[in-house]
Amino acid sequence: MEYQSTRGKASSVSASEAIVRGLAPDGGLYVPKSFPQADLQAWKDLSYPQLAEKVVGSFLTDYDPAFLSQAAESTYGTAFAGKAGHVEKVHDGLYSLELWHGPTCAFKDYALQLMPKLLLQGKKNLGRTETTRILVATSGDTGKAALAGYAGLEGIEISVFYPNAGTSEIQRLQMATQQGDNVHVYAVDGNFDDAQTGVKKVFADAEVAAQLEKRGIRLSSANSINWGRLVPQIVYYFYTYFRLAADGAVAWGDPVDFCVPTGNFGDILAGYYAKRMGLPVGRLICASNENNVLTDFIRTGTYDARRDFHKTASPSMDILISSNLERLLYHVSGSTEKVAGWMKDLAAQGHYTVDAATLAAIQESFACGCADDAQGAGEIRERFEQDGYLCDTHTAVAFRVAEECRSAAPMVVLSTASPFKFPRDVLEALGVDAPASDFEAMQTLTEKTGCAAPVALSSLRTLPVRFTEVIAPAAIRDAALR
Ligand SMILES: *Cc1c(COP(=O)(O)O)cnc(C)c1O
């Protein structure tokens, strides 16, 4: 299987090369040149790790199947507490795919636990021996998931930069207590933009690259434009469909709708790949919070990032430029020239409009909707009071939108974070005054709901804090060069 750039000006590469490079040299994203077809009958009874080997292997054809089998087993076996791809019935016809049983309690674990292994093996496949130094700017979730994925791996170092006082107490402790000799965590004296701008500057700094190269180090990023982060997410769409079919919740071959709380468009795009591989996916419903640039786009064909940025209770969806949408635009328009033009307009003017045929092709597979914080909070309360089901603030947005978009098909909401990651917001939604400390809020949430907090979160209180360094944004460069 070969990969090409969405912008058409870079040569085709293998999967190993696409994963090691991340971004294509022409600024585009790597996409597979064709969609491998699923063998649904042969796959339907496989365990999660076995299915992951099949799905990932059908895209990463230059990887040794024995390696993929071992990597999938070690990633999705015990690390997800036997709950990889766990589906919970909420009420008739409505299901929650709980993607937060991994080590950091957010869905990003599915990709970031496997991707580091794919990167290491990709380097081996290409005969590359340099040290890879990963730099991550994070507003919270990605930083911890990346640290947990890369910690302790040979030939890889990772440095994470988060805004000082810009994350929740839990998110900060998740990062500051990270174990491993190859990890570094810095609080940046500024907001997320300051951290992100600082890291982007380092990536663009030729002098930094030259100095590191002399020491045998090459910089790389862990963000979701890397093909290696997208492909593991395709697996759980298949796994969920097979579970619903086995339980008689859907007749074999009939469609299932999926509603996805969306930020960078990676998670929902994985569902589109599953559909193109032959899975009976009905509609993919893109759920946004108040930063509803994608809702407008899917309705009208105009992507307009020139709008106010809202800080919401679902911070991982607070995004105005959804990078992975570029991959969908390529697949539906089939034109690298068109994609390159739209991306140029977006960078230069902050907006673009696709042609009618492209919009129609998008609307054939995608529906959309948005919900603000008050609607999300109402949904947390309703699901708990009516169904006894507790969800977090991101999942709540999707539940709300799913209700508006119900068809005759069963609806699966992708639940992307544990409610205990945002205990204060969840408590307030349930009508309880939240204590100031996240840990006390977790305790109160357990008392109120009878749900236990994940040990990975409650144990943070007593873990030793390893990283306390606060640096100025201008010092990110020095930190990256250490
Ligand atoms: C990252 C994240 C999302 C958004 O996923 P995308 O792939 O960026 O669309 C939604 N919810 C949570 C909790 C996340 O961490």
Write a structural description.
The protein is α/β, with parallel strands linked by helices and 482 residues long. It has a domain at 84-106 and 230-421: Rossmann fold (3-Layer(aba) Sandwich), CATH 3.40.50. Helices cover 44% and strands 16% of the residues. Strands 3-4-14-9-10-13 form a six-stranded mixed beta sheet, sandwiched between helices. It has a five-stranded parallel beta sheet with strand order 8-5-6-7-15. Helix 7 (141-150) links the parallel strand 5 (131-137) and strand 6 (156-163). Helix 15 (325-333) packs antiparallel against helix 16 (336-349) and helix 20 (423-429) crosses helix 21. The longest helix is centred in the last third of the chain and has 15 residues, at 373-387. It is globular, with a radius of gyration of 21 Å.
Layout of helices and strands, plus pairs?
Blueprint (H helix, E strand, L loop, with lengths): L2 E3 L9 H7 L8 E3 L7 H4 L4 H12 L5 H12 L9 E6 L2 E5 L9 H5 L2 H11 L5 E7 L3 H10 L5 E8 L5 H8 L6 E6 L3 H12 L2 H9 L2 E5 L5 H4 L4 H12 L9 E6 L4 H11 L4 E8 L4 H8 L1 E3 L20 H9 L2 H14 L1 E3 L2 H10 E5 L2 H15 L5 H12 L6 E5 L7 H7 L8 H12 L5 H4 L11 E2 L4 H6 L1
Parallel strand pairs: 4-14, 5-6, 5-8, 6-7, 7-15, 9-10, 9-14, 10-13
Antiparallel strand pairs: 1-2, 3-4, 11-12
Bound molecules: pyridoxal-5'-phosphate (PLP).
